[in-house]
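Example for tutorial group B:
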């Protein structure tokens, strides 16, 4: 019988430019939950048609929540301690962003500009490692951030909150929903937002278009792959946006999605699935 693990592994992030070098962030927690004992692993996943190989790069005594890579390949992560973690001189270093309630999401807009959002309405824009902090006036938790450029970003969160960074300031947009928003994705000239109650909207040409999963699913992640939008809805599986609306294409638990070099990756717990955008799926446990 396989040896029983003394911890639970949860993949919380993937990033990369090519399948042969994907950076993976996973949290390891004791089987009896204790947030103070959660630590994080950053590893390199080398994926190929012959299989995959995982190299553990670093074990950090911190609860990291989000990982992203800049265009030139620099890695950054944020944590529930409100810190930014990054590699400097081949060593992971910490920058205190002064967000004690924790950060939930990170987006690397460029080599010089990062955005991070989190609990209690925290919004941080980091330029050349110098952070500028803002706070949502209603202190709603912000769950995700994405954008089109270092000067154009969107953050979404509780109670339908949508904040837009432009002209060097954050402003609240009129929201089409009161649902908790868990994901935002900018693609071409459209902004997609998604969250609880099967909520999915597209903002384009100053108008909101509504789509729906048909159930009370919580859509937790969005990704664009092969000319189509995909949505992860936890235990309800993975959906694709088609002309008639959202259609379930995979009945397997998926909490997060990421597209890397034309391949859609879906993950939950310690399990990763791959989809080639056509019909072929494969999956495996990372075994950390």
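The residue assignment follows.
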């Amino acid at each position: 019988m396989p040896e029983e693990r003394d911890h639970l592994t949860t993949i919380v992030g993937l990033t990369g430019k090519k399948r042969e070098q994907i950076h993976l962030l996973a949290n390891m927690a004791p089987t009896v939950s204790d947030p103070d004992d959660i630590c994080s692993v950053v590893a390199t996943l080398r994926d190929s048609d012959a299989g995959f190989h995982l190299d553990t790069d670093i074990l950090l005594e911190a609860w990291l929540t989000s990982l992203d890579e800049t265009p030139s390949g620099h890695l950054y992560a944020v944590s529930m301690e409100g810190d930014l973690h990054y590699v400097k001189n081949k060593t992971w270093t910490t920058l205190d962003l002064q967000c004690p309630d924790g950060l939930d999401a990170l987006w690397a807009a460029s080599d010089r500009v990062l955005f991070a959002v989190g609990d209690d309405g925290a919004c941080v824009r980091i330029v050349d490692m110098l952070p500028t902090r803002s706070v949502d006036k209603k202190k709603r938790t912000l769950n995700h951030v994405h954008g089109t450029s270092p000067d154009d970003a969107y953050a979404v969160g509780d109670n339908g909150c949508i904040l837009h960074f432009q002209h060097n300031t954050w402003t609240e947009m009129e929201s089409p929903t009161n649902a908790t928003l868990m994901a935002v994705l900018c693609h071409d000239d459209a902004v997609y937002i998604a969250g609880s109650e099967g909520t999915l909207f597209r903002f384009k040409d100053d108008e909101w278009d509504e789509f729906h999963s048909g159930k009370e699913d919580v859509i937790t992640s969005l990704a664009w792959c092969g000319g189509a939008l995909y949505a992860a809805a936890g235990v309800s599986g993975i959906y694709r946006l088609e002309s008639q609306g959202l259609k379930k294409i995979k009945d397997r638990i998926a909490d997060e999605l990421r597209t890397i070099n034309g391949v859609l990756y879906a993950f939950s717990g310690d399990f990763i699935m791959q989809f080639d955008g056509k019909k072929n799926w494969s999956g495996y446990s990372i075994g950390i």
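Residues 186-276 form a domain with the Lipocalin fold (CATH 2.40.128.630). Compare this with the pattern of hydrophobic and polar residues in the output above.
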